[in-house]
Amino acid sequence: MPIITNSLTLKDIPPPPPEKTGWPWTEENLPLPERMPDGSEWPRMSIVTPSYNYGRFIEETIRSVLLQGYPNLEYIIIDGGSTDNTVEIINKYEKYLTYWVSEPDEGQTDAINKGFQLCTGKIFAWLNADCNYTISALQKVAEYYLNGYRLIAGGCVAVYNDGREETVYSVPTDFEGYLKFWVAGCSFTQADVFVDKALADDCFLLEKNLYMLMDYQFFLRALSKKPKQIYVQEIWSKDKLHGNNKTLKGYEGGISEFCQIALAESAQLPWIQRMIYRMDVEDYTIIYSLNNSKQPYGSGNLFAALFVRPTLLRWPFFWKMLIKAVFGYKIYSWLMKSVGRSYLS
């Protein structure tokens, strides 16, 4: 499979549509030298783009990767059998891609898994087909990697249909902090996180039944390895919020996915912390059920949330009342504060 070993420029790739200007249409990054100053290769960067019927966006995505001017680039596109003009656009850039395929799959997570299994680089990231990198982003990531960082996070600009832009930076966190996720807010802007490939090897494959929160699973697994990490106050991508994004459309299974991932990955915690964290997850989902009858358990009522899904051993109210009865409220409060509640406070 071809690797981009020479820095690409505007003259190397197909011309943009006539109405398009600016980055990455008529502007390019200053190409990097083919080798670093010491004569060694730049660390290979493996980028995977999962795609399905995003032909109106994917050309900008592709160009924003190819025109980084990065000389050791592995770019893989896994398309789920698009029926719009996606394949036509991919074909325009086929000679510059390491690999691409368009065939039915089992969803976005399945596509990411397929792409990851083909990666041979030192640094891994996936870039969705409605996102694009900003100019010189990959060069900056490589420089941090060469300084020993194994999880590198930047920021993104969310671009709305009405032209509004909102800057969002990844927030410094660790495994325990990231378990908060929906309680305290997502700490990573997904398109701007780059992970050491050897570290990512310990995190994949992701559960392909995940529709929306596969990035949450990936980042929890990566953080559990306690990598050397850095959070940079720089914009490395633009994310188009066009109305059909999963996070904007709403997904009724989102809370269930959160529970599935959080409860599974919380096995990394010491047992007391794990028990209390799981109580809090159950509390959160039950409260959510009061406000949305379709979540999290699918049966559509609070009765199911309280009595069907949780077993007695996971029932938060039972255990909280038991701890209070046996040890008293002061001991209960100390326990929650010192060994458990800090994970959600």
Order of helices and strands: EHEHEHEEHEEHEHHEHHHHHH
Q: How many DSSP H or I helices?
A: 13
- State the CATH superfamily name of the largest domain: Spore Coat Polysaccharide Biosynthesis Protein SpsA, Chain A
Would you report the number of β strands? 9
| Share of residues in strands | 15-25%
Tertiary shape: elongated
Calculate Rg over CA atoms.
22 Å
Q: What would you call the structural class?
A: alpha/beta
Query: Class of the largest domain in CATH?
Result: Alpha Beta
Largest sheet: 9 strands, mixed
The N- and C-terminal alpha carbons lie at a distance of 48 Å
Chain-averaged pLDDT:
84
**Whole-number count of domains:** 2
Could you tell me the CATH topology label of the largest domain: Spore Coat Polysaccharide Biosynthesis Protein SpsA, Chain A
Q: Give the proportion of residues in helices.
A: 25-40%
CATH architecture of the largest domain: Alpha-Beta Complex
Unreliable parts = 293-314, 340-345
Task: Kindly describe this structure.
This protein is an alpha/beta fold and 345 residues long. The chain has two domains: 45-249, Spore Coat Polysaccharide Biosynthesis Protein SpsA, Chain A (Alpha-Beta Complex); 269-343. The chain contains 13 helices and nine strands. Strands 1, 2, 3, 4, 5, 6, 7, 8 and 9 form a nine-stranded mixed beta sheet that branches. Strand 2 (73-79), helix 2 and strand 3 (99-102) form a beta-alpha-beta unit. The longest helix is centred in the last third of the chain and has 21 residues, at 271-291. The radius of gyration is 22 Å and the shape is elongated. The termini are far apart.
